Amino acid sequence: MRAIAIDGPAGAGKSTIARALAQSLGYIYVDTGALYRAIGLGVTLLGLDTKNPEEVISALDNITVTIKFVDERQRVFLNGHDVSEEIRKPEISMAASNVSAIGQVRDFLFSLQKDMATKNNVVMDGRDIGTVVLPEADVKIFLTASPEERARRRYDEQLAKGIEESYEKVLEEVKKRDYNDMNRDIAPLKCAEDAIPVDTTGNTLEQSIELLKQIIFDNLEK
Q1: What is the pLDDT of residue 51?
Q2: pTM
Q3: Rounded to the nearest 5°, which phi and psi values hold at 29?
Q4: Of 140, 161, 166, which is closest to residue 151 (Cα–Cα)?
Q5: In which residue ranges of the chain is pLDDT below 50?
Q6: What total of structural domains would you count in the chain?
């Protein structure tokens, strides 16, 4: 099986670009961030504190996360319920960042992610795919853009969904998420030594997709 690993900070466009790349390649797309969001949602629904490791770990016995592919799109299920839309709420983004810093949560989801890559050709995106989950990936890309650009994209996405939040608050959340992800003790966000860094600041979505397509095709042919 072949694997493409795409890592990067929140709002870099990983999910949208990775989904388009998977479709072009005929691979399965795996959004690992959605799994952590599901855990964050599950802990929140239980009324527990996502910043408290003991409470989060205790909640794992009552949480089941599964992935299904419907019409070639990943759907995430929490305890049997499709939560693919609910996990995209802004407050769940920070909950995901909190729980992802806990080693037991990462262990909880590691086998699920690894299993997907052993059974399918995958494009997998997240924060530590190239460094921890799939260090043997055929192509590794570290996708980023300036905090301001990523905040603008997130702001526009939320407006389109009817979520009203000021740009300044979105930018603050992006910077806070970056700090949390890069400074956690376990599997911090970083560019793998053999990853190809790609900065999409100023690019349209179409330009970014075409750029990554070319990088992947060039490297798969080596």
Answers
A1: 95
A2: 0.83
A3: -95, 130
A4: 166
A5: none
A6: 1
Does residue 92 fall inside a structural domain? yes
Phi-psi region of 117 (alpha: psi -120 to 50; beta: other; left: phi over 0): alpha
Give me the pLDDT at residue 222, please.
Answer: 66
Beta bridge partners of 74: 69
Close Cβ partners of 221 (under 8 Å, ≥ 6 residues apart): none
Q: How far apart are CA 79 and CA 58, in angstroms?
A: 16
Kindly state whether residue 145 falls inside one of the protein's structural domains: yes
The answer to the question of residue 221 being in a domain is no
Which of 177, 162, 141, 159 lies closest to 10 in space, CA to CA? 177
CA gap 145, 200 in Å, rounded: 5
Give me the pLDDT at residue 197, please: 97
- The answer to whether residue 217 sits within a structural domain is no
pLDDT in tens, 10-25: 889 898 899 999 988 9
Domain that holds residue 107: 3-211
Q: What percent of the chain has pLDDT over 70?
A: 100
pLDDT tens for residues 167-183?
999 999 999 989 998 99
- Domain with 51 in it: what CATH number? 3.40.50.300
Tokens 């949390």 — which residue?
Answer: 180
Of 189, 182, 195, which is closest to residue 142 (Cα–Cα)?
Answer: 195
Q: Single out the residue of 66, 49, 67 nearest to residue 58, CA to CA.
A: 49
Number of Cα atoms under 13 Å in the Cβ half of residue 25: 27
How many other β-carbons are positioned within 10 Å of the β-carbon of residue 146? 13
Distance separating alpha carbons of residues 37 and 67, to the nearest angstrom: 13
pLDDT given at position 67: 87
